Amino acid sequence: MKSRERFHLTLTTAGHPVAQGWWGDETIARLKFASWIGSYGSMPNAGITLTDEQELTVLTSWPDAP
């Protein structure tokens, strides 16, 4: 991962990572997040998380935590 790629998107299924992506721009990362929900949201036990690697915080996740 390059240091300028701050925003990390992870797709998991049954708790195991199956795809990852990094972006330097939060707006683009959030667009990718929404796109991944449309593309992968029907996978069994899918979960998608967008993390700010610089701040070490989860920005959003799908599905929402209970």
**Overall shape:** globular
| First-residue to last-residue Cα separation | 31 Å
Uncertain runs are none
Question: How large is the radius of gyration?
Answer: 11 Å
SS-based class = alpha+beta
Total domain modules: 1
Helix and strand pattern: EEHEE
The share of residues in helices is: 10-25%
Describe it for me?
- With 66 residues, the chain is α+β, with helices and mostly antiparallel strands.
- It has one domain (7-62).
- It is built from 1 helix and 4 strands, in the order E-E-H-E-E.
- A 4-stranded antiparallel β-sheet has the order 2-1-3-4, covered by helices on one side.
- Strand 1 and strand 2 (16-23) form a beta hairpin.
- It is globular and about 30 Å long.
- It starts with 6 loop residues before the first strand and ends with a strand.
- The model has no long low-confidence stretch (mean pLDDT 92).
